[in-house]
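User: My collaborator sent over this chain with a note saying "see what the structure looks like." That's all I know about it. Can you take a look?
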Amino acid sequence: AGNDCLCALEYSKCHVEDMVVPFEATIDYSGFRVLAVAKLPVAKVEFNESGDVKRVRTELVLGTKDRGLTCQNQNRYLDQKMAVYAKHLNLSRHFVKGENDLNAREVYSSVDVRGFKGKDSKFYLLNFWRGLPSENPDLTPHLPSVPRGNSIFYRLLRPEFVKAHPTPLSANANTQVTAESSDWIKQLDDNETATRRLVEEVIPDFAEELSIKEMNPDPNDGFGVDITADMHRNGINVRHMGLVRTRFWRKLRGTCSMIFHSRKVISNRDYSSQVKRGDKVKVLGKVYHISEDPADEFTDTTIYLDSNYEDDSKNFVTMHAGEVEDESNSEQIRELLLSEMVARTMKNLLRLYLRHAATTMRISVANIQVTLMTEFLNIITGSNPHSDEFWSEQLYNGIVSRFGACSISETERKTFRIDLKHMIVYIVKRFTDMFGIQLTNDAIAQLYSTPAMFRFVPQDINKPGPRVKHNICDVDFSDAVLLSHRADRTRSNDYQNLIVSHAPFVYWKLSERKGSRVAHNYGRGSMPYSGYFSSRCDFEFKGPVKNDDLNRCVEFKADQKCKIDTKFAPELCPKDVFAHFSIEAWAKVTGSKGTNRVAMMTGRCSLLASREETWAFVIYEQGVEVVIEGPELEYDKWFHLVGTYDGTLASFYIDSVLVRQLELRPEITVRTTAVQVERQEALADLLGREKEVRESCKAKSDEQANKFLVTKGGRNLIRQNAIKLVEHSEFRVKMDKNAAEKGLVKMSKKDAQAKAIMDYKEELYMKNVQSASEEYRKLKEELEDQNQKDDEYARELLSKAMCVGSSVSDRRSKEGRNFFDGYLCHVAAYTSCLSSDQVREHCHAAKQSRQPQADRLYSLATLKFSKALKLAPDDPIVLAKYAQNLCNYLNFDVADRSGDRKSKRKVNKAIKEFTKYQNCDGLAEILRRLPADPEYADLACTCYTNILQFSPNYFKFDSYFTLKELSSVPFKFFLTEVGSDQVKVSIAADIFRKVVGELSLATVYGEENLKWIQRVNSDAAVVSIVIKAQSDADSRIVDLTLYHDCSDLSDDDLANIADSHRLALVLNVKGAKELTDKALIASARCCSSLQALTIDGCESITGKALDGLKQFTPHLKLLSCQQCKFIDDEYLIPMLPFCPSLCVLNLNNCDLVTDDFLKVVGSQLRHLELLHLAFCTSITDQGLYQFAVTVNTQTFTSIDLTCCRSLTDDSIVGLASKCTLLKYLNLCGVSRCTAIGGKAVTHNCWGLEYLNFEDLDLLTDEVFHFDSSGDGRRAADQNMLRSVVDLNVSECPRLTDSSLSGIGSRCVSLTSLNASGCTLLTDAAARHLVADPNTGQPRGEKLRTLKLSYCMNLTDVCLHTLSKRCTKLHTIDLSGCVHFTDDGIKKLASHCRSLQSLGLARCKRLTDRALCDLADHLWVEELDISSNAKVTDEGIDVLSMEFAGLRKLNASGCDKVTNRAVVSVARHCRALKELQVVGCSNINVECLEGVRRDRPDVNVVWEEEGVRPVEEIEKEKK
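Assistant: Without extra context I'll predict from the sequence alone. Here is the result:
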């Protein structure tokens, strides 16, 4: 049954399409074993016409169902599928013939494996109990023999062994079905070969492996060795434990006498029962073998060795027997193996007793089971009174009958219980595990404390079984995959994804970088509805959301009218009053108390901080505002604000708490009714007032008339009107002949006056009434206009674009009003109503990190994967998912770059587990799944080296991890990057050699066939060649130093490279210290077209190599021999005529070059352009002058004379006057050069671009000013120094501000200036650099590098001056300028935003504030703040968090800097390559060693004597 389950598992791990392998399990209970097999749908039911079952049949197409009478293999498709199984399991195709078969058939599997065709047309396999080849019983004599050789039916080879065997094996070998087949002899021979290999090779190799295995001293844990798993991994069945045990050294019982020059050994105990002929023994440290000659005596008292004993005769000598080379682990391994055999035999004996009890009583009773288990446990501990008898009789015989007589000797029979006394806990653990017994925690604790004679009682057993073993790794695997998927979802569900999953129409994270103009919309509306920042918003402030990788926010300032404008979105302003909507924001108020501060506003609603100092959710509808007020706001605190409307209820949430809910429709009705009533009341009031005014007009008019009539004007007006009335009446009378009849008479004067008064009063009254009517008509129109405008504003509000940080624009202000004062982020607007659960989820997701939950799920998934791998350690699907789970966890944990992340520890643990069990496929799967990131290069390298450790030929063209996949590994993990350590480069080179060794992959890195690089031993050279080939660079340019240091390049390597590049034009082997003249001559012979050769630093090369150059490279144009100290005039001068095209010659540090060479080089090399002779101290004025006279001045442009201290003004003047076309001149350290030589250079060499006057003590200011009296040439005045780009005048102590005046005036193209150590310079020098002293024209805008270190007279004024003009500075060194303060540094940082490298060492007035100013304005990669006593941890903390790209930091001598700063820099500055903390007394050794351990890529420089231990610092603090 166990074999059936095991073989079924092996078949299931192949994952063959259209094939089904059933789940199987063995259940051990009460001493019996049941094999449970899943029922498969292989039965085909046939019905008759009436619908009744006619018959049930199965379609067997493979195997036998009659014990080998007939064998079938009827389906070709199934046979193809079985071939796939055979390939995975290393089974051969062979012939079988049943007893009743006429012809033999070819099959791949055992005939006992049955294949059925199911009713779904799939194929189902059953009956795997003999699914693998068996051991040949004749070749395992150490095991007990079995009647009729029936062991072939259950002593199967392990699947690990079968898979690793060099040739495929037949599963039917040794059986009758192959007896009459044509290949039965081959099947039998293969089986014998395999069994012999197992016994004679695999088991001895495994023993050797165990002998050197690292073990822990705890016997309770089996010395840290899982012996069963190790044996299975090596393909060894546990039944061979006895044979394995015999190979370890053991002390033989008794002593012996050794006789000088004799092979005879006389023992006082029976040695013949403890060893056999041919065994290896050790006597007094020397190894012998027991004689195999039958003539030699082999008795209980006497044995013979194979060679004479040559030491002094001795008595009472101990003898050891064994086979392994290393005996250090022998004692522990023998005890462990014997303990394992004891536990397994005890399990079998207990099963026997349980079966006997159940058979006798015809029932299985739990109490009897527990009682028997308890007594067996007591037998193990020795507390049972019959323990000794049981161990020496039943247990001993049980071990021998299962593991063979070799497993335990007769001499151990009486003592092995005592010998294993310290292994009791291990035996109990193994016994209970194998039997499925669960002990109580108290019993386990007591057992650990006093194992010997510990007495178990039945109550100590929680559960007596049963024990289930199965092939269903899919259960744990499925759980693991599900957990991993959930962990991935949790990992990916950051705050942004959560918000987006709820489909907001607009969602602005507000996490943009400084200077951004667009607020990106992550909602459904996408980019067309992105917002636009006003120019005064500030960015990159820390936000409140933990589950956001950036966690940034934007600052809005009310006084600067900061806001975000957007495009109008009709979806956010629905005209349907029942449409759902929600708005959401994270807000923090910082100011503008007593005003309305709008966080966000749409045409329907807004979120704001009110003037009443509360949060409010406002809804606009039908011209009214419904304000839902929240609690009192708190300043400088983040709040999560959400307002929702579901067509009925409006809800306001703060930090996921529902602070108020309002039914909107009744409130709107009340508000609109109130508005209408208010309007009607206003109109009625206006009409009432109008009526009152009309009624008061009569009295008012009379009063006005009376007042007017008493005036002179009034009397005159009445008199005139009366006269007109009299005249009018008189005229009417005259004109009408019937006037008398009509009663018309002339009006009297009195009546006329009365009539005039009355008419005036009536006219005045009408005028007043008309005026009042007009006034109130306008008031009514204004009221109506106001109402119409309010209605129109309500309608227009629905067409206003959403605004963040202020209210929407209106008639009062086009820019908006009520500006927000504080910070905002994660602003969203929805066209749906968020539920309370969603609001709570948003708030919780922001405040609670998703990492703990994802971590928990990943950990659970890892445990499940581990369980699945115990059943199927080589299942490719399980391995792939497990590696994917681990590497997904790495991706999730990528934000933490501490170097000791939990995810990396988990992957490391998995690598160690796979390494422990030598699971190369598991290591390969991790290597495949690791993220492409240089941080994981160490994990990748570990996987690769461990794979090669166990299987050097693992990587093949068609292996589990193919060479094609392997080819990309070095680039995936950046192993080939410049600066990579030697280990990474070596691994990359090894991979390249393996890959190109495959013929089909020789051109995988480009068009060039690189198979030849297998012969190159230099790893750096191999890597450089592959990188060049991949970049498709010109193959004729062979630069081995372009990417890595090739100092280990050997003569053979260079010969192979040259032989593969015979058309090379350029060869650069700089720094190859091992190269000799032989290699260089051979390379020249191969590369006859060579035009450029660089051998800088090749210290072993002498002048003899030049003989090869002159013979084979006539076209040489460039030769660089820098630091080749053995090259001299003797070989240089003869070479010159043979290389007439030579135009570049670099002889720096070639001490043996003299004037003799200079005298001829100018005349011989007429195309010479460059000659560098730095540190050629033998050169004098005579040689240089002769060279200047003879050289072709039309081509010669560059010369380096650094530290040629014998030169004087004479030769320099001659050089400058002759070689006027020089572009590069280096006179550094030519200490005898004075102002005369300097003037000759500046006044004659007008084309100079690089000029170095460093360390010329005699140089003065006049060098940089035109000598009108001594020279007088107008052209010289106009052109001197005009072309200089790089000028170095450092350590010239006589230079003053005047020299900077000349430099500023003339060096119009200057980009780099080094004036370090010019102690006479003052702030005026800075003014000369930024403005022409003569014309005032601006200068310095081209300056990129400026070094003013130790110019002690400079102050902040200098920095203020430089910052105004030199805004493009990239590098500045101000070290030692003690007068600089924080204000000056702030000014410099705020204007020179391109600065990346700063030197501020020994600027003693600088404090942390200066560092904060640097952090606010710059991106710095190199910083020196050493010896600044006022710098503390706070300043460095700010630097480390802001300067993520910092590569070099020097904080040496900063006494206030502690461990905290070092840890902060190591954690945050992931690009850091060098950290100097020399002399920082508050930093301890443990901290720095921790940084080196966590960040091996960082070079930490410190002095141990300057670093104090932790205890001393803590004591000082106390």
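A starting point for your reply to your collaborator: The two ends are 71 Å apart (CA to CA).
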